[in-house]
């Protein structure tokens, strides 16, 4: 209610429920329109005034509505021309009483404001023109009798028989000349419509009655042929200032003064529209669906992972199978040549079998990286590789320590190595630490299957490692074992040719380090279904590097150089290595700043005894005698049984 004045008189009228409900419906409709995108940039408002069934109060409220738009005072500006006048409202719904509605409508017509009459005016109230009566009672009575002869007077809000009259009038049909008239179900007369043409002639607007539309015949009736021809030549007026937006597009309001005008723009990516003239595009579910630009529907994302039939996976699986075949072939070759010096010098068949078995498990672990990720695969693949490869490096570490212990001439280093060299405890402890790391990883942050939605049109099904720290700790521990193994093997790299396992161990560790150093930046920057393929490649390179460096040279000697795979050939190699060691020791004598004590190999070959020479009195012949004595001792020991013990223990 916007009426600020209270009704001075109280009229005994019943509360009209239907009008109240229609008012609530209008308020609800306006709020729904404002809260939706039906009229973008436009807000509807309303003002409701109580007329108190008084024309004066209704006129006062109407004057407020006719005040100028955006004016602080509710004042109507009187002008000669109201064509450019902008009032506060665009339309007015009239009162349910005819007297008030008719009075208000006359003032609204001056402002060219539309008034929507209440439904009651058309349905139940008959407008009757009352003649002016005389003040004389006699003349008044006579005049009333005259009026009653051909018309009826009905008092406002009087429950009478006028409804029966309306029902009777609906069935009345009459003619006026050639025109026939009748009433419809609503009581409105079907007089048809005149077709008017507005034409601008010499700057003046003229209105021409071109035809009449007959409701009964549903046809146009023209006055003459000329008018009909002109009417037929009229072009259809397009009431829309914008073309219709098709599916895949949405309406965008233009910057013109007409808010009904718009332009059609394509729906952006991951949006769609499946109807015409949509105000906005609908959003696809970005996790499971996608849509291109100007799309009419959403498309389901394709689930991708490293499939078994992928070309890169087939290549890696071929290398995997080849590695397993090579591992089995090496095991068969070593088994058939068990008693040969090459196999014995490799540490024995048990150690070789353990290393080959670790290679077999490492190759098999790469198969868990291919195919659809599952919880079992995600939890198994990294830990299976980590434990098997740590066991392999631990076995190689014991071999490198054994070589360093056998051919080291430093007493302090030999003492330290003898205390530390316990093959089985070393293997168990080194492998056990890796198993503890993997157990903690699986307990507190186990890997799981994850859907990666970072790529717009596909869903990458991958394994989340659970904890990058645990994954890095597992790989870092293997790297520490490999580094210790590399240092130990590097110190014993200058050994006899048949015993030179340290050189091959060093080469295998270098290949391992290069592969995993390259792996770290590639793994950190790669994403998608080929991320597991990167780790498969690195694992294969590491396995092939160690397998080729440690076992292929021995297989080559067993198969292609059988003449060097004999005990005499190994003894000859040891003798030559001992001679070279003697020469190096002689050179050290001449370079030593303390020539009174020169360490020369004694007859025990593995120990040193100082030979004292008096400074300034030792001649060159005496020096030669000492060297000859050392050579004889080396030769005698070479022909003895001590090198045989050393060969069997390496």
TrEMBL record:
<keyword id="KW-0732">Signal</keyword>
<keyword id="KW-0807">Transducer</keyword>
<feature type="domain" description="G-protein coupled receptors family 3 profile">
    <location>
        <begin position="312"/>
        <end position="574"/>
    </location>
</feature>
<dbReference type="Pfam" id="PF07562">
    <property type="entry name" value="NCD3G"/>
</dbReference>
<keyword id="KW-0297">G-protein coupled receptor</keyword>
<comment type="similarity">
    <text>Belongs to the G-protein coupled receptor 3 family.</text>
</comment>
<protein>
    <recommendedName>
        <fullName>G-protein coupled receptor family C group 6 member A</fullName>
    </recommendedName>
</protein>
<feature type="transmembrane region" description="Helical">
    <location>
        <begin position="530"/>
        <end position="552"/>
    </location>
</feature>
<comment type="subunit">
    <text>Homodimer; disulfide-linked.</text>
</comment>
<feature type="transmembrane region" description="Helical">
    <location>
        <begin position="311"/>
        <end position="334"/>
    </location>
</feature>
<keyword id="KW-0325">Glycoprotein</keyword>
<dbReference type="InterPro" id="IPR017979">
    <property type="entry name" value="GPCR_3_CS"/>
</dbReference>
<keyword id="KW-0472">Membrane</keyword>
<dbReference type="InterPro" id="IPR028082">
    <property type="entry name" value="Peripla_BP_I"/>
</dbReference>
<feature type="transmembrane region" description="Helical">
    <location>
        <begin position="502"/>
        <end position="524"/>
    </location>
</feature>
<dbReference type="Pfam" id="PF00003">
    <property type="entry name" value="7tm_3"/>
</dbReference>
<keyword id="KW-1133">Transmembrane helix</keyword>
<dbReference type="InterPro" id="IPR000337">
    <property type="entry name" value="GPCR_3"/>
</dbReference>
<keyword id="KW-1015">Disulfide bond</keyword>
<dbReference type="GO" id="GO:0004930">
    <property type="term" value="F:G protein-coupled receptor activity"/>
</dbReference>
<feature type="transmembrane region" description="Helical">
    <location>
        <begin position="468"/>
        <end position="490"/>
    </location>
</feature>
<feature type="transmembrane region" description="Helical">
    <location>
        <begin position="426"/>
        <end position="448"/>
    </location>
</feature>
<dbReference type="InterPro" id="IPR038550">
    <property type="entry name" value="GPCR_3_9-Cys_sf"/>
</dbReference>
<keyword id="KW-0675">Receptor</keyword>
<dbReference type="InterPro" id="IPR000068">
    <property type="entry name" value="GPCR_3_Ca_sens_rcpt-rel"/>
</dbReference>
<feature type="transmembrane region" description="Helical">
    <location>
        <begin position="384"/>
        <end position="405"/>
    </location>
</feature>
<dbReference type="InterPro" id="IPR011500">
    <property type="entry name" value="GPCR_3_9-Cys_dom"/>
</dbReference>
<dbReference type="InterPro" id="IPR001828">
    <property type="entry name" value="ANF_lig-bd_rcpt"/>
</dbReference>
<keyword id="KW-1003">Cell membrane</keyword>
<dbReference type="GO" id="GO:0005886">
    <property type="term" value="C:plasma membrane"/>
</dbReference>
<dbReference type="Pfam" id="PF01094">
    <property type="entry name" value="ANF_receptor"/>
</dbReference>
<keyword id="KW-0812">Transmembrane</keyword>
<feature type="transmembrane region" description="Helical">
    <location>
        <begin position="346"/>
        <end position="364"/>
    </location>
</feature>
<dbReference type="InterPro" id="IPR017978">
    <property type="entry name" value="GPCR_3_C"/>
</dbReference>
């Amino acid at each position: 209610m916007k009426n600020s004045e209270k009704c001075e008189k109280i009229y005994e009228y019943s509360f009209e429920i239907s009008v109240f409900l229609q008012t609530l419906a209008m308020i609800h409709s306006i709020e729904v329109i404002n809260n939706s995108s039906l009229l973008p940039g436009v807000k509807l408002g309303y003002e409701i005034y109580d007329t108190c069934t008084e024309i004066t109060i209704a006129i006062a409220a109407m004057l407020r509505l006719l005040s100028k738009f955006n004016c602080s005072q509710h004042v109507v500006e009187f002008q000669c021309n109201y064509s450019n006048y902008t009032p506060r409202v665009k339309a007015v719904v009239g009162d349910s009483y005819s007297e008030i509605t008719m009075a208000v409508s006359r003032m609204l017509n001056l402002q060219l404001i539309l008034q929507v009459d209440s439904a009651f005016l058309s349905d139940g109230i008959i407008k009757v023109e009352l003649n002016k009566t005389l003040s004389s009672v006699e003349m008044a009575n006579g005049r009333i009798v005259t009026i009653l002869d051909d018309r009826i007077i009905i008092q406002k809000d009087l429950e009478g028989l006028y409804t029966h009259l309306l029902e009777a009038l609906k069935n009345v049909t009459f003619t006026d000349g050639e025109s026939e008239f009748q009433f419809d179900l609503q009581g409105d007369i079907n007089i048809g419509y005149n077709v008017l043409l507005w034409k601008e002639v010499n700057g003046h607007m003229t209105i021409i009655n071109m035809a009449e539309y007959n409701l009964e015949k549903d046809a146009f009736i023209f006055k003459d042929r000329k008018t009909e021809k002109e009417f037929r030549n009229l072009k259809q007026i397009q009431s829309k200032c914008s073309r219709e937006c098709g599916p895949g597009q949405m309406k965008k309001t233009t910057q013109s003064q007409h808010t009904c005008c718009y332009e059609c723009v394509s729906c952006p990516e991951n949006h769609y529209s499946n109807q015409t003239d949509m105000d906005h595009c609908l959003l696809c579910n970005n996790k499971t669906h996608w849509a291109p630009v100007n799309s009419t529907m959403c498309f389901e994302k394709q689930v991708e992972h490293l499939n078994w039939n992928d070309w890169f996976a087939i290549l890696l699986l071929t290398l995997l199978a080849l590695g397993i075949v090579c591992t089995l072939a090496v095991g068969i070759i070593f088994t058939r040549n068990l008693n040969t010096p090459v196999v014995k010098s490799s540490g024995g068949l048990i150690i070789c079998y353990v290393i080959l078995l670790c290679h077999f498990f490492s190759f098999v672990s790469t198969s868990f990286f291919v195919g659809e990720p599952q919880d079992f695969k995600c939890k198994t693949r990294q830990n299976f590789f980590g434990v098997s490869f740590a066991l392999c490096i631990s076995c190689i570490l014991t071999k490198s320590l054994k070589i360093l212990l056998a051919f080291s001439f430093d007493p302090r280093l030999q003492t330290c190595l003898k205390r530390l060299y316990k093959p089985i405890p070393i293997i168990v402890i080194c492998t056990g630490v890796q198993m503890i790391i993997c157990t903690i990883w699986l307990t507190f942050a186990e890997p799981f299957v994850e859907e990666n939605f970072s790529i717009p049109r596909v869903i990458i099904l991958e394994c989340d490692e659970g904890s990058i720290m645990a994954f890095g700790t597992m790989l870092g521990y293997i790297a520490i074992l490999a580094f210790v193994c590399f240092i130990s093997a590097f110190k014993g790299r200058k050994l006899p040719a048949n015993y030179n396992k340290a050189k091959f161990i060093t080469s295998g560790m270098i290949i391992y380090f290069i592969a995993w150093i390259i792996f770290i930046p590639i793994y950190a920057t790669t994403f998608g279904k080929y991320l597991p393929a990167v780790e498969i490649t690195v694992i294969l390179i590491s396995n092939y590097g160690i397998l080729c460096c440690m076992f292929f040279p021995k297989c080559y000697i067993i198969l292609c150089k059988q003449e060097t795979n004999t005990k005499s050939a190994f003894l000859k190699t040891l003798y030559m290595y001992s001679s070279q060691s003697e020469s190096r020791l002689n050179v050290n004598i001449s370079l030593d700043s303390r020539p009174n004590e020169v360490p020369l190999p004694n007859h025990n070959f593995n120990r040193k005894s100082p030979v004292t020479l008096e400074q300034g009195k030792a001649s060159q012949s005496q020096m030669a005698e000492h060297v000859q004595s050392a050579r004889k001792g080396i030769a005698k020991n070479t022909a003895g049984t001590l090198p045989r013990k050393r060969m069997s223990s390496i």
